[in-house]
Amino acid sequence: MCIRDRNSFEMYAQSRLIPMLRPALKHVFGVLAERSMVLARLYQWSDLWISGGLAVLDSWHLQSLGATFGEHFYGLQRSSSFGRRRQPLSRMAVALSILMSVLLPAVKEHLDQWYKEQGDVWRTTLQQRARSEAEAAAGPPDGRIARWTHRVNQLMEFLRTRLVKVYPALHASTSAVSFGYFLLYLFGRTDFYSPLLHLQGTVVQRVLPSDVTPMLTLTLTLVLWLLLLPGP
Fold first, then answer.
1. SS3 of the chain
2. What pLDDT is recorded for position 128?
3. How many C-beta atoms lie closer than 10 Å to residue 93's C-beta?
4. How many Cβ atoms are within 10 Å of 85's Cβ, its own excluded?
5. Exposed, middle or buried: residue 84 (CB in 10 Å: 0-12, 13-18, 19+)?
6. What band does 181 get if pLDDT is binned at 50, 70 and 90?
7. CA 30 from chain center: how many Å?
8. Pairing of strands 76-79, 203-206
9. Least enclosed by CB within 10 Å: which of 34, 166, 229, 231?
10. d(CA 62, CA 210)
């Protein structure tokens, strides 16, 4: 790896950019929702709207600039290997980047939020067991549709309880692997900053002066404005 391509600080900073933007965007959404009945109705799904908008933004940057929004913001670009300049990403590389660098992190963030809302796993298990015992004592519901609905609800509750149980171990495992990759990358033992980039076979390198294209002034101005926007 060339010294000028090492970008540990920029890679860490870009990984924190979107999580920093989300609260600011949600605050802006809330302020606008107070002035519009339509936005007020959509505000309960604000997290999904924001995730969708950021996914579209990242997808556009990947297709047009060969980097996610956060990577481009910090002067980084993607390539199949270090030192290759001005090589546009293939359609397959763009599709994999959108899947693994945009959609999967968004799903993980929503799962993290979902798990926090579930509360303590043991309390959840006890509540589910109490409901099951009460339903068993009451007997099966009458009617074909009612029985089918009852079975679907039981299945969903079973899956939810199992996911609540295994999610901490799953979260710890993925975090440990990501941290391991970060350390290996920091000490120059691997070219890949994360396991997802390794699966894609994609490295992220600094943009050199010879690679610079006209900057997205309007986009960067908007981002800086959101970052400087006072909190609620």
1. CCHHHCCHHHHHHHHHHHHHHHHHHHHHHHHHHCCCHHHHHHHHHHHHHHHHHHHHHHHHHHHHHCCCHHHHHCCEEEECCCCCCCCCCCHHHHHHHHHHHHHHHHHHHHHHHHHHHHCCHHHHHHHHHHHHHHHHHHCCCCCHHHHHHHHHHHHHHHHHHHHHHHHHHHHHHHHHHHHHHHHHHHCCCCCCCCHHHHHHCCEEEECCHHHCCCCCHHHHHHHHHHHHCCCC
2. 59
3. 19
4. 11
5. exposed
6. very high
7. 21
8. antiparallel
9. 231
10. 19
190 φ, ψ to 5°? Answer: -150, 155
Six token digits for residue 203: 């490295």
Per-residue pLDDT tens digits for 68-92? 888 888 888 888 777 666 567 778 8
Q: Which residues contact 109 (CB under 8 A, 6 or more apart)?
A: 19, 51
pLDDT, position 179:
93
Tokens for 85? 């300049």
Residue 111 dihedral angles phi and psi, to the nearest 5°: -65, -40
Residue with tokens 């609260």: 23
Q: How long is the chain?
A: 232
Percent of the chain with pLDDT over 70: 72
Q: Residue 206's closest CA among 2, 5, 3, 1?
A: 5
